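Postdoc handover notes: sequence design on the structure in folder B. Input tokens:
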């Protein structure tokens, strides 16, 4: 690894005492400082299993991982994610039932949206607009309020 990468990582670690879960932010900052690096998402195999992770690669394809210290293992195997499969990854959880959401949906379906909005005290007549649902990418309305 280049000495300037190592120095940057050491300085970044001094500013961030807790690096667990900071891999996305750290790699974004590192790529901004070193545009020749590429940010990579995927999984890292540790002695404890497979974990989602972000790291960088240099022009030679060597791994430059600013948050590697979060893993207390000497042998790590990096698996880059195939970005063509990005649509298969959940993008969040439904506020109504906790089920996985895809395509940055807000709710899994209209029933969960009704339940959450009702629980917020807005009542059943509240228009549900600008919300996205799993497999639906258009504004949704209650039947009696459709435009």
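Designed sequence:
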């Amino acid at each position: 690894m280049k000495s300037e990468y190592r120095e940057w990582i050491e300085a970044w670690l001094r500013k961030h005492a807790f690096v667990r879960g900071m891999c996305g932010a750290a790699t974004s900052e590192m790529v901004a400082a070193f545009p020749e690096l590429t940010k990579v998402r995927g999984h890292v195999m540790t002695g404890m299993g497979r974990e989602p992770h972000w790291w960088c690669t240099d022009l030679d394809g060597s791994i430059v991982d600013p948050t590697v210290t979060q893993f207390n293992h000497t042998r790590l195997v990096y698996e880059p994610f195939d970005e063509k499969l990005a649509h298969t990854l959940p993008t969040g959880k439904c506020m109504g039932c906790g089920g996985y959401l895809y395509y940055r949906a807000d709710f899994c379906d209209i029933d969960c949206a009704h339940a959450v909005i009702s629980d917020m005290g807005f009542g059943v007549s509240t228009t549900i607009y600008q919300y996205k649902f799993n497999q639906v990418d258009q504004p949704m309305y209650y039947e009696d309020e459709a435009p």
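Context for whoever picks this up: Residues 90-147 form one domain. Don't rerun without checking with the PI first.
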